[in-house]
Amino acid sequence: TLNARTLGSLGRLEELGANAESHGIDIIAVQEHRFYHLDNILKYHQVGSYQLVTSSASKNTVNSTVGGIGFLLSSKASDTLLSIESISPRIMVLEIDGNPKTTLVCVYSPHNSSVADEIENFYTTLRSTIEQVPLHNFLVIAGDLNARLGPDETKFTFNSKTNRNGEMLKDFLEEFNLYTSNNSFMKPKGRLWTFESPLGDRAQIDYLIFRKKWRNSVKDSRSYSSFSSVGSDHRIVSATVKLSLRSSKKTKPHPIKMIDWEEVLSNPDMSKQFTIEVYNKFQSLSTSEIDAENIEEVYSSLIKSTEEVALATLPKGRVGARANLLIPQMSSKPETI
Question: Which residue, 53, 60, 141, 172, shows the most beta carbons closer than 10 Å to its own?
């Protein structure tokens, strides 16, 4: 996750893409890109082999463009994309295919000095969004929360105390059984801070958030300065994740596929006997259970008769053997047994 401050300046978007490629990063949650496109809910910007999908920035009281969130996706990530949705100007949801599926939520919280209603509305919308994410999905919430978590709230932090936004974040984490990965590993102070003000003051306000059930899958997390050429006052935050994926359960083969059809086809006597028994079975049904005017019902009954006789009388073989049903020739009546 990276608060880019702006990507509208010449070359900044290209620099972001080049840095992502050089570091092998497939997905970056981006805040404050400042691209304004109010008529389009989502806009796609090509950046070399990457694309940036953005939700529009907005205009402030002096008509300056502010905010805007999005996802930078590599071609690999784009190929696995299932859906992407703008929930609000501050929340965006991306889902990618996999086992399990991964849901990423890009967030950009109002500043700590914002009015209380604004921050409360943000968390109300965020809560509603997270409630819609299936519990078995691998969930990542990434972004600039403008929240400082102090030592009383989390183990490894750059901040000396918790601010108002930090209290809101703490309650949200507890409610959904979440944790911030970049507060969970012992790091030097230089790898904890994520933002530097024009006066040189530093703070940790950007986070990667995961469900606690996946804690053992997150192997490392920290902030670093490798994206400083983008020109932001924030640093990128990343996590190293290792998932132990289960293979999908294989469906059991249809019982008819267990028949050794190769043997049946190579044995004329067996084939003839099978045809006779299927005919007799079908004839017994046709006089009592079948509506002769309904061709679909007649055909279904023929298939059912064939399968029942095959399973009762024919030899079983290996799974995957050729399974061509021997539909008996009905044009002439064979000898009845």
Answer: 141
Distance CA 335, CA 328 (A): 13
pLDDT digits (tens, 9 = 90+) for 59-88: 999 999 999 999 999 999 999 999 999 999
Q: What phi, psi does 277 have (nearest 5°)?
A: -65, -35
Q: Is 223 contained in some domain?
A: yes
Residue 244 has pLDDT above 80, yes or no: no
Identify the DSSP state of 143.
E
Q: Which residues pair with 73 in a beta bridge?
A: 27, 51
Contacts of 35 (CB under 8 A, 6+ apart): 7, 8, 43, 45, 54, 56, 57, 65, 68, 70
The pTM of the full predicted model, rounded to 2 decimals, is 0.73
What tokens appear for 227 in the block? 């994206």
326 falls within a domain: no
Q: Are residues 147 and 290 in the same domain?
A: no
Q: Over the stretch 115-140, which tens digit does the pLDDT of each residue have?
A: 999 999 999 999 999 999 999 999 99
